[in-house]
Amino acid sequence: MTIWAECTVSAAHRFADYDMHGHTYIVRVSIREAEDGFLNAETFRDELLRIRRGVDHRCLNDVLETPTMEELARWFARELRKERYDVTEVQISRPEGLGCRLVLAG
Description:
Blueprint: E1 2-15, E2 18-32, H1 41-52, H2 69-82, E3 86-94, E4 98-103
Antiparallel strand pairs: 1-2, 2-3, 3-4
C-alpha cells in the first residue's frame, strides 16, 4: 500500500540569467506502508509539514546547491528518509502546468 501527503511551498530562487523570483510549488510525497502494515497518514502529513519549514518562504539558493524543482524533490526525499519513511515518489508541480516526478527504487 502507498500513502501520499501534499503540502504547498512558496520559495524564491535566482539563476545567473534570471533575477530573484518566486514560485508556489505543490509537493506530493508517496511512501510505502510499514512492514507491520500500519501507517498513520496524519502523522506522516504532519511530519511533511514540519520538514517543509526548511524551504517554505526561503530562498532556495540558501538551501539547495542547485535551486531547481528537481533538486527540491530530492531534498524532500532525503529529509523524509532521515525520519525513516520509505519514500517511493516525490512530485513537484507549479500552477502554471510544470512539474517533475522523482521515482525512487524500493
